[in-house]
Specification:
Blueprint lengths: L12 H6 L3 H7 L4 H6 L12 H8 L3 H15 L11 H34 L5 H36 L5 H9 L1 H22 L11 H36 L1
Helix pairs in contact: 2-10, 6-7, 6-10, 7-9, 8-10, 9-10
The protein binds fe (ii) ion (2 copies).
């Protein structure tokens, strides 16, 4: 969390966190994402909920969560990257360079590993067949989704950000057309990866797993981490910046 003004110093930590949203906390410091992940709390599509609300809904010990968030702050030490203060064009370039490239490099690996593992071990562990189907579904959805962002939405956003004055008409069009569609698609792909997480017992390979089986689960978890950060940057930072421009 950013350094707090003096009048906050005597406030109870619980009070400081309880009413803040998960998305706000991760927006300030992406290193906190790992803590929310540990507690099974979604920070990208479901990030609009307050800490208190999210803990109540999932039966999570809020004080333990806050303690972990605080200790992550002292553990990570260095200054967090403040994506929120980045200009829109830089954010778009970062998303493309880091996350879209990651997805393009890794989807073929996931498809290959999941097909191989389902073929060899699917008779003993039938969930592997479902995992392979979900991976294929996720790949098709993501390829189409990223194309829409790369060919339509992101060029519109970049063009808008280059203009001296805000083009209210284009901004309105973006916020009421492509943005809600992208958000709905994020939710769908987020649901698929959560389903894969459940099917794979939180990406835990069984004792008899071969190396490809283990590598598949390792890569799936890495892919989930990247996907959640990717969606967080779009939903909670990039689109939020557009909403602020329109306000
Ligand atoms: Fe994207
Ligand atoms: Fe997206």
């Amino acid at each position: 969390m950013a350094s707090l003004p003096p009048y906050f110093c005597n406030m109870d930590k619980k009070e400081l966190y309880a009413h803040r949203t998960i998305a706000e906390i991760v927006t300030e410091d992406i290193s906190k994402a790992g803590i929310f992940k540990k507690y099974g709390l979604d920070f990208c599509c479901g990030g609009g909920r307050s800490i208190e609300e999210a803990c109540m809904k999932k039966g999570i010990d809020m004080e333990a969560l806050i303690r972990d968030l605080e200790s992550e702050k002292s553990r990570s030490g260095g200054r967090p990257v403040r994506f929120k203060s980045w200009p829109v064009h830089l954010l778009v370039d970062y998303i493309l360079e880091v996350h879209h490239n990651y997805v393009r490099e890794n989807l073929p690996i996931l498809k290959q590993f999941s097909a191989k593992v389902a073929k060899v071990h699917g008779h003993a562990d039938p969930e592997l067949i479902q995992i392979q189907q979900r991976v294929e579904e996720m790949a098709t959805d993501l390829e189409m989704h990223m194309r829409k962002e790369e060919e339509i939405l992101f060029p519109m956003i970049k063009k808008l950000s280059e203009q001296r004055e805000v083009d209210a008409e284009t901004l309105h069009l973006i916020l009421h057309g492509p943005v809600p569609v992208m958000e709905a698609e994020h939710e769908r792909v987020g649901d698929i990866i959560k389903e894969i997480r459940d099917l794979s017992h939180q990406f835990t390979p069984p004792g008899h797993a071969c190396n490809t089986y283990k590598a598949l689960y390792f890569k799936l978890e890495e892919f989930e981490d990247d996907l959640f950060q990717h969606i967080h940057l779009e939903n909670n930072i990039l689109f939020e910046k557009l909403r602020e421009m329109a306000a």
